[in-house]
Amino acid sequence: MSDETPASPRKEGMLGFIVALWDGLYSFVFRVVPLLLAAAFVLLLLREMRREDIEIAPIQVPTRLAEAGLSPDVVALRLLDQVILVQNTVTAERLGQQRLELAGDQPDFNVPIAGLSLRALATLLRSVFGTPSKRITGEIVLERDQLKLRLRLAGHGLIADIDGVPSDAVDRLLALAAPEIWRVIQPRLYAWHVAQTEPDQAVVRDKLRALMRGAGGDVAAENTARGLLGRSYLREGRARDAFEVAEIVIQNNPALGAAWYLRGVAQFRLGRIEAALEDYRRAQQLDPRGVWVHVAVAEAYAQSGRLEEALMEIRKALAEQPRDPWALQHEGSILLAMNRVREAMLATRRGLDQDPNSADLRLLLGRVLLRLGNQAEAATAFETAARLAPAMAEPALDLAELSLNMGKRDEARAVLTRLLAREDLAEAPRAKAAALLASLGE
After folding, report:
1. Backbone phi, then psi, for 138, in 5-degree steps?
2. Which of 136, 226, 304, 365 could pair with 381 in a Cys bridge, judged by C-beta atoms 3.0 to 4.6 Å apart?
3. pTM
4. Most distant pair of Cα atoms in the chain: their distance
5. Is 259 within 8 Å of 249 (Cβ atoms)?
6. How do strand 53-56 and strand 108-110 relate by DSSP bridges?
């Protein structure tokens, strides 16, 4: 008896511990866990409801397209692909100016999925509470072997009306419509898309002006459009026009670093080096993230003959933004000035991979090819640069000089005559063109 008496309380204590542990586990699993799961579900649902959601509804299609497998749901998905492609094209650069401007501004596009889902439930609840998702609807019509597409957005009405596309080019039709969706949803992204993809600068400026007219008091959209308008002038060598645009943006928003940068570039192109450097410093103070200002500072150093410093400065930008065509063009120019021709060609080719419509890069390509002794391809590059930016004098001057060296006097004379006939030609290129024409005995 004396041996069993102490053991009984130990057994009872162990049994009590097991029972308490079981009760605790049971309570946690069947009471606490469901509450945690329910809370997590509610949080996910609330987050889904707060998202700026834009739904692309099935696009109605002609029977002929549906029979070929292009059902309304498939066409809606392909339109979604094109919408996302526009966004990705604009924001491709990791630290590009456009990516910084547009950070956090893009809505979430989706095509509704049949059946119950978290998104479908959030959409239903938003409708119940009077905040329905924005919905894009539309139809494709086939007339005389040509496709027409009309898209509408709830609250905005008709937002895209595309026609004149061959019946076998549905993806092209949708690609034309996608930017029009962004024009209404996010005008700033649309402005960048136009500036980056349209080679005709006159068309770029027309679209940007139309965007400003319809901005409806959206100051951010107006600033972006004006800044890109100035950039378009710069791409054509019209620095004075770009300077005037920058002045307007600075007057409207003096705290905008990009505006001071634009004015600095215009000043540099007008030969005001110190004034340009002051604008660049102001831009860096207002927007330290603007790594593109390193490019401009490097250009100013190179102009002053400080090539090693210029190369160091440009590579600060390329360290953060390795695919930027503007930075690559300046790196190539600096390397060419340092007589590092092969490296200059590599930088130029990399830049053209990113922006094949850059007149500056085409001009640089011609100069690198000329240094390598390839006169025929250099002439083609100069001609392409002149076509892309008719207002730029440098491609025409380089082409005329090359034609003279190749003995093509008539071609040189024609280029120089057209150049000197321009009323907007600046004093320095006019003097050079006149000197080249004089060398022909005229």
Report:
1. 175, 180
2. 365
3. 0.64
4. 135
5. yes
6. parallel
